[in-house]
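S1.2 Input.
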Amino acid sequence: MKLSFHPMIEADKNILCAGREPGKADRKAIQNARAVILPQGCRKSLYQMASKHCKYVFPNYDALFQYPGKTGQIKLFQKWGVPHPLTFVFESVDEYLHRDYSEKSTIKFPCVFKFSWGGEGHTVFYVDSEIMLNQLIDRAVEFEKTGQFGFIIQEYIPCQGRSLRVVVINKTLTAYWRVHTDSFYSNIARGATIDYDSDPHLIEQAKTAMIDFCEKTHINLAGFDFLFHEKNCLPLFLEINYFFGRKGLGGAETYYKMLVTEIKDWLKMVDTSLIQSENLK
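S1.3 Output.
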């Protein structure tokens, strides 16, 4: 029995868990399932229940929940030794204030300040002075009063006003540049344009690096952002977006067609693996 918690994906059994915690009935259904399909906005409790009681779960969100937020992503990049901008991770303002001065003194301006949460660049700031950095630290103090912790300070990479988005859906990769030469931000929601064709050799380099990374981390549904320094061709891992926009993929309808196709392929892989396991018994 194949079980889907995704409102757009039909399976042998469908359950909606939006807006509630999973319960005993959900756990029983998962235990009886050969494979479980979860929504992209799956909450941690449902994912943990599914992965505990079923071997085959899509998408694989181990990395999302083990390395949460932008602080967690940097730690994941560091774990696997992938190239990324020089980054200082602070889980709290207190950690920042007590960090060794010799380390903090290596922060050069301009730099980039990012709170650990948020999307579309709304919690990302170009910092050109110590005064502005201190203002953001003061803002972090206020956020901590509401329970929001963590930020990173990252070297600024001159990248000709563009970043590369590569989306993985199971085994399929889709890549496009997001270009905004008049702004620090290259988010489509902030006016960036989409370019599918420029520098295909750079796109292939990023795809190759990403495939290797996804094989190690088992990430199979996410949008990766890469930067290329204007003076070299090394793809730098910037961020992982588990909840990504669909405009660069052709819109929501095209995205869901891709998702359905890839989940069908994933289910075929599950069936093959189960048959092989049965034959070994």
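S1.4 Remarks. The mean pLDDT is 94.
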